[in-house]
Structures are given as structure tokens and as C-alpha cells.
Amino acid sequence: TIVIEFNWGSDMDIAAQDMREKVDLIKPYLPSDARAPMVVKFDPSMMPVMQIALYGGDNIVQLKKIADDTIESRLLRIEGVASVGIAGGLERQIAVSVDPDKLAFYGLSMPQIAGKLQMENINLPGGNVSQGKKKYNIRTEAEFKDIAEIENMPIPLPQGGSVPLKSIAEIEDTYKDVSTISRYNGKPSIALIIQKQSGYNTVQVAKKVRSEMSKLIKEIPVEIGYETILDQSDFIEFSINNVKKNAVIGGIIAIFVIYLFLQNLRSTLIIGLSIPISIIATFVLIYFNKLTLNMLSLGGLALGVGMLVDNSIVVLENIFSHRLQGEGPVTAATSGTNEVALAITASTLTTIAVFLPIIFVQGMTAQLFKELALTVTFSLLSSLLVALTIVPLLSSRLMVQLGDVGISSKKSNKKFVFLTSLLHKFKVFYNRVEEKYSNLLKWVLSHRKAIIIPSVILFILSMTLIPFVGAEFLPHSDAGSISISVKMPYGTNLEETNRFVAAMVERLEEIPEIEGIMESIGSGGDMMGGMLGSDNSEASVTVQLVPLAERECSSEEVAENIRNITMDMAGAEIKVQAVSSMDFVSGGALQAISIGIKGDDMEKLKEISREVTDIVKATPGTREVKSSLEAGKPEMVVEIDREKATMYGLSSAQIAQSINSAVSGSVATKYKVGGDEIDVVIRSDEKLVDDISKVKAILIPSPTGALITLGDVAKIDKGTGPVTIVRENQTRQVTVTGAVVGRDIGTVNREIQEKLTNIHLPEGYSIKMGGEQEQMMESFMDLILVFILAVVLVYMVMAAQFESLKQPFIIIFTVPLALIGVVFALLLTGRHINMTSLIGVIILAGIVVNNAIVLIS
Description:
Radius of gyration: 37 Å
Oligomer: single chain
Mean pLDDT: 83
């Protein structure tokens, strides 16, 4: 596998096309038996949208047939579904198990029998012939109709005559060797892995799949059931509904607060109308900019709802003041709006100026927050337009009589006694606050040092507390799912891996928070594993938890519980990870700890990686620490004695082919039955090659007519072969990875980094932090740059408005003071500095200055 990383902003369609052209240039130099290279683009849409466990039916064979013949084709018809992978079950094949002794006795070889099977099973055109007025196509039809035909197929002998295939081989209608075993809650099952086409909506695709599955279950005559193990749309719908609910509640609270202050129904109605009008205008802009409704764009809108009313309130309050001074409705609306138009335009532009740099930065920051920035910008522009046009219009119509600005008549007072009393109490309370504030302000202006010095001290204190807050890339959110990967030593057979996983699952069943367990033995369960094939020594287990409302423990706590339960299970490497819905945002979970060690000599790399692994393990909060340098795969090395082989008239290629045919077998032809194509596999009888000593006894027919064993021409030794060789930019690399539990990722990585500086590295060797730490540092640097640019742009907007370079500094100096609240809020709530909290800080740079601008104006 070669992974190529491009600069952010590169057109990946053009890049992929360029890669294919480059790969085509080297295709002629690849070995003849190498498969054609695949060029695949990696993006979050490659992650499965859904994973469904299928169970029931009479047996697993029938279930697999239903999945292959009915379910897969029906789901692939759904618009937006790219592929339906099927894992588990049994696949039919015709096995031709050859007796090597009989083969040698008749002077035959495996390739001869495979060739004969291929030549006899044909269906070929033979041109056409005319007779009278008609033209007939000629077709030679000699395909096998049943197993008996294969059994009785005559095999010509070198010395003349022939023998039927069944006299030298056993022919069985059987199943392929099981490579994966799937179970759901202990029942044999089939796993359906559904991927969507790029550009299609996840929620809509998942909805169509669920609808089709419910129809299929009713239509299939056999009683089968299914359970959704993973559904990305659940997380999306849950998150979006949360954001929508927050936006609506935010809007209602905003209107209520306005009513408390204005204590006038008509004025509140004006503001109440300005919110939906602004939101509709925002949606128009979202539509024409081809943005979708997602967590970030809706988050921007929810954020915008709070800011939407700011401009309208300032305009309405000013019109209100003009009406109290006795001006007519239209005059008050015109003069009141003109008076504050410049101030609210400036305050809106300062907030927009904060979001502007996000649109132009690159990297993960731009990918994640571009839509949020655009949505907030659209909502603010809409609110400004509404405040300058619709609010004055409605004010001139609805504030008809001056009496309307006060509380309603006695009749309505009797009707709403409680509300009237509440409003009166609030008015009295607010008047007191206003009075106290007025006195406080007088005192502040005459005791400047008493305010500035504590403010500076508080600011310095908050800055020193930042390291205690901790850092992470993205906040973890409970997705109600846990992923467990099991890695046995290389070479472990499927039965042994299955036994280990069954014992582990037995322990997991004791955990009350678990609702369902999906096991996939013989599969690593990751995206790369699916592309590169699976290994018998690997397994993946997906644990479904009961809904969050029904359990007391978070998914992280359950994951830690699983680690403790499986800690004493020796003989395998178990990795437990709580799935976060943020994994779908960032396109897959990054490693919490990932340290790359580069150099040329493998032995030195081994030595350094052991030292690094010990350092990481000794750091509190680390779990599942491992090095990418793994024990080699067990293998048998066949060393051919060329002189002896040549004496018997054999080449190394012929010997290698004989070993391959005897041990692995090869697909000789396809047997067609009932619309299915079944592999006809030719191989040696398994009982005759299930041991190393038996491999030495494999008979190889030589052109001289002599029968020789493999042991006559080759030496067989046990050894280990490399599992993987990893290079980055042409340099050998070993990676040490690990998880973090109970502490923040930033602090743990910082501690590790400090310890790594003490390692003495030879010339030409280097250590680099990668994974989540690298991504986090890159994104944080981007956001700090955005913050600096935002402050500069805000200053420029204010300098233009005040026509002064000095006055804006009064406001700019209030921006750092906002960080006091940020640091203490994060400390008190136990949250960390991450991408979303840093975006909050940047937004503050715009919000903090709004009130100050209006005040100074």
C-alpha cells in the first residue's frame, strides 16, 4: 500500500487521475502475476454508512445465499448506495482432491489435470453457416451439466489410454475454507457493510436502506431477522435535532428576555418577527451557496439566532426613545434608525471580520469550520438588513399610539395578574440595578487603578492556568458504540482465534450496559483491512450500548471496564476504543498517541522503539501501547538444489508450481448451475499435506519419467518472514501508538515529548509526534493565526468607523479580558481546549467589541 498525502485544497479528482496515469507508466515493469494496481481516494464517505447483522433461517448457508442473491442486489438498486459488502457465511465450491501417489503412479501432474478441466468445460462460438435462406450460428456447448460429468471426465495418460478423474481424485460439492466467522449475540450471522456514493446524503441513504430492509424481511419466505449495528445517520439526526432544539429554545428565550426589558407586546412582536425573517433570508443564502444542513452549518445558525436580535433591539430601542420624546411613528422610525445605522453596521462587520479569516485558511480547520463561518456571516448580514429595513417599517405601523409603549390597560392587568406582577418586580429590580451601576460607574471612574490592576492580575492568573485546562483535538461525544480489535500472534489459525474471541465475549456479557455484540473473526475491521484482505489471526468486535438515557456509565467508562475485564487474557493484543460521533466528522479516529521513529538500520530502530515504548507505557493515562515492529510471520522456506533439479529435468518454477498446486490448490474452471458460477478447485488431498514431513513427501513428476519427492531436490527449513516494511518519504519508519484514558491528550503527549528529548539518537535517526497531537498542533496554529487576523480586521473596521487609530484600542484591550471567563469556565466544567472551544474564543473577539462599539457610538 502506498499512501500519498496532498496539500489542502488540491483537487482530488485531478490528483487521482494524475496518479492513475503515473501508475499506468510502471504497469509493464510489474511481475506478470501481479494484480492491476488500484488507485483509491480516501475520504470520510469510505467509512461504512451502515453495518447490519443478518441472522436466522435454517442454516448459515441458506442465510448467505439469501444475502448474496436477494438482499445485496435489492440494496444496490437504492440511489446513493455504492457497495454492499457481505462478511461471514459459507461459499459453495467443487473440490477436486487429488491423490499425489496415484498422480505420480500414472505419471501425471496437477497442471495437466487443471488444463484438462479447463479445456473440457467450454461454451464457444464457431462462426456461422448458411443453408437455403437461413444463416445458422454454430456454438460448441461442452459445459459440465452435473458433478458426474466431472467425475467421469477421461484423463489421457502419457503411456497411452486414459483413466476417469474419479480414479485419481475425490470430487466433492462442498464449501470454501472459512476465512471469516460472524456472530451477533452468539448467533451465527452475516454482516452487511453498506457504503454510500460520494456526494449523497447519509441520512437519506440510510433511511432508504432501512425502508428496503423492512420490506425485504416480509417478502423473504424464510424467517430471518436483522439488527443495525452501526448507523451514521443516527448520530447525524441526533446531533442535528439537538442543534435545532437549541436554536428554537434560544429564539424563545431571546424573545422572553426582550419582553422582560421592553414590557411591551407590540415591540416584542417586532423582534419576534425579525428572527424568522432573518432565518429565512439565511436559508436562501445557504441554498445558493450549495451548503448542506449539518452539525456545523446548523451550529452556525443556532449561534446566529442569538446575534440576530442584537441589531433589531438597538434599532427598536432607539425608535422607542424617539417615540417617548413625542415624535410621530414614521419620523421616529426614520430618525431612530439613521442615528444607530452606522454603529450596528460597524458592530456587525466586526463580527463578520472575525469569521472572514476562517474562510481563507486551509487544513482541517477550514474543512470543519468553513460552513459554520459562512452560515454565521449569512445570518448576520440578514439580521442587519432586517434591522435597517423591516424593523423600522413594523415600528412605524405597530407603535401607533404612545400608550402602546407601556403596560396594557387595567382590564388586561386583571387577566394577567401574575405576568403584570412579574414584569413590575423586574422593572423595580432593573431600576435598582441601573441605579447601583450608575453609582459603581462613578466610583470606577474615580478609582481607575483599583479596577485596572485586579483585571490585569486576573488576566495573568487565567493565562497561567491554561496548562491545567488540558488540550484535545475534538471533544469526545458518546456514540453508544465500542470497537474492539483482537490481534493474535501471526500464523494463529481461525479456530484458535475463534476460541479466544468466544471466551472474551463471554466475559463482556456480564456488563449490564451492553445491548448487542457483533463478532467478526478473521477480519481486522478497519478500512485498510477490507482493501488488503483479512488474516485468520485477527478479529473485530463491535459492542452496542443501551441508549445514553438508560445507562449511568459513558461509553469511555464502559471501554475502560472492558480493558480491565480483558487485561488478564494472555496470548493476544486487545485494543478497545469508544466510538465518538466526532470520528465521523473528522473521517475516522486519529491515534491519540502516535510517534514515528525514522532511520535506516532496522536493529537500531528496534532498540529506539523499545525505549520509546517504555517511556509511553510509564506515562500515566496511557493504554494499549504498541510498536509497529511485530513478530514475524511463521513460514517454511523451500531451498531448491538446482543441480539435483536439473538432473531430473526440472526447473525451480516447475517445482514451485507443483508445491502451490498441492498445498493451496488452484481454480481450474467454473461450474455453472442455476445462474451461479461455482469455482472448481483442484488441490492435493488435505490429509496428505497437513504436516511439514508430508510436504517433503510431495511427489513431483519429472520429464524423464522418474517420480521424485520434494525432499529429493530441496531442503525445507522453518523461519519467520517480515509482516510489514514501512517507509515514509523513502526512509524506514517504526511507529509507536497508544490510547489515552482519564487524562487529556495534549498533557499526556506533552509529558511524553519532554521525556523523548532525553533519548540520545544516533546520526540520521529522528523522532516525530504524529496522530492526533500533530493534527491538533497544526489546527491550533491555524486558529491562533485566525484569531490574530480577526483582531486586526476588527481594529481596521473600527478605525474606519471612528476615523481614528487611537480610539479602537480602547475596545481592542477588552478582547484579552474575555479569556479570563474562557479559562475559568473550562476549568470549572472540566472541559478541555479543543477545536470547538478555540472557535468559541475567536467568535468572542467579534462579540466582545459589539456592545463597546454601540456604547462609544
